Amino acid sequence: MQSGAGYTFIELLVVSTIVLILASAIMPLARVTSTRAREAELHRALREIRTAVDKYKDAADLGNIGALEIKVGSEGYPPDLETLVDGVPAANDATGRKLKFLRKIPVDPMTHTTDWGLRSYQDKPDTTHWGGQNVFDVYTTFNAKALDGTSYRDW
Q1: Are 81 and 41 in contact (CB under 8 A)?
Q2: Global pTM?
Q3: Each residue of 113-124: pLDDT tens digit?
C-alpha cells in the first residue's frame, strides 16, 4: 500500500498542461509590449532629432549662426546630423562659442544604429534616397509595419 504523500502522474500532467497554456498566452502579449516600447522610443528619437533640426533652422533664419556656416541652397537647414552634434560657430561671437543642438545622435530602436534615413528640402516627399543638400527630415530605415498598420518609414 502506498502513502498519499506524492503527486500522481496525471496530476503532474494536468498542471504541466495548464502552465503551458498560460505561457503560450503570455508570449504574444510580451512581444506586443516589447514592440510598443520600441515604437514609443522611435517616436521619442524622431521628435528629438526633428526638434534639433527645427532649432537649427530657426537659429539660421534669425542670423544666430555664422554666415559662412550656411551653404547656399541649403534653405538654412543643417548639412548633416553630425553638424547638430558638433555645433556651429555663433554669429558675431569672437569667443569661438558654438551652438549645439544635439548631445548625440539618438539610436534608432528598430535598427539599433544611428543610421537614419534623411530627406533634404529639395527631395520629393516619397523619395527613398537622400539628395544630400541638407537635412530637412529624418525617418527610420526599418522596413516593417507598426502595430497600428502604418509603415515605420512614414512616421
Answers
A1: no
A2: 0.80
A3: 999 999 999 888
